[in-house]
Design a protein that fits this description.
Elements (H helix, E strand, L loop, with lengths): L1 H9 L8 E2 L5 H11 L11 E7 L1 H17 L5 H9 L6 E8 L8 H21 L3 E5 L7 H6 L6 E12 L11 H4 L9
Antiparallel strand pairs: 1-5, 2-3, 3-5, 4-5
Helix pairs in contact: 2-5, 3-4
Length: 192
């Protein structure tokens, strides 16, 4: 139990620009997923799937983002377009967690989406436990219909996050964390 709490207590995101190869091999990716998919899943719907993006696919995705950046904003500076082109070039492995929302199901859509979010977070923990740095990102590309179409998303699917995984080239920065007592309140009951 102490090891699990230590992992949670030391969890931090490694910015994707600080990630490099080598990334996890296929066996290590399967091990990450084995743990990361053990998330709350009301109704056992499996309301998510995972898309692996690595190698030249990262370059093709970057090229797509650069084109979309120009389409979305014809006045975008070259620096903005190139930042979008490079967005997936740092980490050797990117896992896109795709939420598969079943509209009208007895399990509320929010619970299905939250389950996919848990997969993203669990991937961060699994990556760290196996010695990798990782960062969960979204950005405009996660919400763009053209990007979704090119990634093969179907009806009811949306990107919950892109989890970038690789070797940290430097220590992940720490940031101030909230004091638990400052965010905890106890409800005493209200009027009947």
């Amino acid at each position: 139990m102490d090891d699990l709490l230590a992992l949670l207590d030391t969890r931090r995101s490694t910015p994707s620009r600080l990630l490099a190869g080598p990334g996890p091999d296929d066996a290590t990716l399967q091990r990450m997923l084995q743990s990361a998919l053990r998330v709350p899943d009301h109704g056992a719907l499996t309301p998510w799937r995972v898309l692996l993006i690595r190698g030249e696919a990262r370059t093709r995705l970057g090229d797509l983002l650069a084109r979309r950046s120009r389409e979305r904003d014809p006045d975008a500076t070259e620096a903005v377009v190139e930042k979008d082109r490079a967005r997936f070039q740092h980490a050797p492995v990117v896992l896109a967690v795709i939420a598969r929302i079943q509209a009208g199901h007895r399990i509320p859509e929010q619970e299905q989406l939250l389950s996919a979010g848990c997969v993203c977070f669990s991937l961060l923990l699994a990556a760290q436990a196996l010695g990798f740095g990782a960062q969960w990102l979204t950005g405009w590309a996660a919400y763009d219909a053209v990007v979704a179409d090119r990634l093969g998303l179907g009806e009811g699917e949306r990107i919950a996050g892109f989890v970038h995984i690789g070797q940290a080239t430097q220590s992940a920065p720490e940031r101030p964390r909230p004091d638990p007592s400052a965010v905890l309140t106890e409800w005493q009951g209200g009027p009947a």
